[in-house]
Amino acid sequence: MKKIFIAGSTGSIGKSTVEVASAYPENIKVTAISAAHYSEILLEQAIKLKPKYCFIPDKNEASNAEAHFKKNCINTLIFYEEKNLKEIIDSEDVDIVLNSISGSSGLLASYYTILAGKDIALANKESLVTAGDILTKLSKKTNSKIIPVDSEHSAIFQCLRCGVKKDLKKLILTASGGPFLNTEHKNLSGVTKEMALNHPKWKMGEKITIDSSTLANKGLEIIEAHYLFDVEEDKIDVVIHPQAVIHSMVEFHDGTILAQLADADMKGPIGYALSYPERLNGLMKSINLAKIGSIEFLEPDLQKFPFISIAREALKIKKSMPCVFSEANEFFVKKFLKGNIKFTEIAEKVKKVMEKHISFEMDNIEDVLEAKRIAKELASKVG
């Protein structure tokens, strides 16, 4: 029985994790949950899971949750201070943390988990993008396992179990292409929020869905893969695979390519991360290969989707630049969702921020937080 803390329990990944935990009570016990604010979903989760702890990083929201929990006779302890987050993670009531917090806000949950020497099921790709060197070095020191939950990195993680690192030639990240795969480049400037949130394959939160539509998610995944698997940028390829059946691949020096195929259901990588190295029986429905019929692969259009090239540039520079790339993207995604900038301006403005930033070495979490602050400041000036 693994005792888990779902950080970001009310988001899309968090809710899927609750489903997995509820389906396998003999394997998984949810002892802690967290959310950015109080909601009916959080209340329902507390009633269903009866966790010992709930963390909400806002005093007023935590008080609101406490009142609703008390009204419903829920004995869950609610905390809001940063030190309490660390205390929950450090406690004997938590074996593994599933970090599904959206965006760069998830960094501290990742840091405290790895610092405690506990395993982390990582769905928050921004943690490694913003602080990859720091977190991976720390994980080796504390013997914390970073188990990926992103479908692409989970696929690579699983494929690599069939080979050894010295035989690896390259990683191949797949991308569905999002809702604008067949949209002409000249028409992208007119894309609306509703259009961008209409992903053809995956049901996700707003931020990651926009990232999928711009292919910024592939840029973030290139950087994350570099840190997760210790593979150089020029050995990480991206290929468009519209059917979204193959979640990623690895190629070995002898020409062999291994691929991981599964239904487009995040419960798969979530369950694998939480049960690793074992598998949960009946976790997902089987895919019908004959019904799928055929699959295809396409080269990404780097002019239409410039984020892949922008991310590669950030990774080549390294130091604080990947952090600034991630933070600036998050800033402008929010502006797009509010209707303040055009869809195509997200990438354009991120590139402008990077051009203005003077990259510096980051030796600790305080340096990362400073890089995030600088990125927001530059992004505000770029507008």
Automatic annotation (TrEMBL):
It catalyses: 2-C-methyl-D-erythritol 4-phosphate + NADP(+) = 1-deoxy-D-xylulose 5-phosphate + NADPH + H(+). Residues 4-132 form the 1-deoxy-D-xylulose 5-phosphate reductoisomerase N-terminal domain. GO terms for biological process: isopentenyl diphosphate biosynthetic process, methylerythritol 4-phosphate pathway involved in terpenoid biosynthetic process. Keywords: Isomerase, Isoprene biosynthesis, Magnesium, Manganese, Metal-binding, NADP, Oxidoreductase. Pathway: Isoprenoid biosynthesis; isopentenyl diphosphate biosynthesis via DXP pathway; isopentenyl diphosphate from 1-deoxy-D-xylulose 5-phosphate: step 1/6. GO terms for molecular function: 1-deoxy-D-xylulose-5-phosphate reductoisomerase activity; isomerase activity; manganese ion binding; NADPH binding. It comes from the Bacteria. NADPH binds at T10, G11, S12, I13, A36, N124, E126, G205. It is an enzyme of class 1 (oxidoreductase). Residues 146-229 form the 1-deoxy-D-xylulose 5-phosphate reductoisomerase C-terminal domain. 1-deoxy-D-xylulose 5-phosphate binds at K125, S151, E152, S176, H199, S212, N217, K218, E221. Its EC number is 1.1.1.267. It holds the Pfam family DXPR_C. Its cofactor is Mg(2+); Mn(2+). Residues 261-377 form the DXP reductoisomerase C-terminal domain. Mn(2+) binds at D150, E152, E221. Catalyzes the NADPH-dependent rearrangement and reduction of 1-deoxy-D-xylulose-5-phosphate (DXP) to 2-C-methyl-D-erythritol 4-phosphate (MEP). PANTHER family: 1-DEOXY-D-XYLULOSE 5-PHOSPHATE REDUCTOISOMERASE, 1-DEOXY-D-XYLULOSE 5-PHOSPHATE REDUCTOISOMERASE, CHLOROPLASTIC. Belongs to the DXR family. This is 1-deoxy-D-xylulose 5-phosphate reductoisomerase. It comes from Candidatus Acididesulfobacter diazotrophicus.
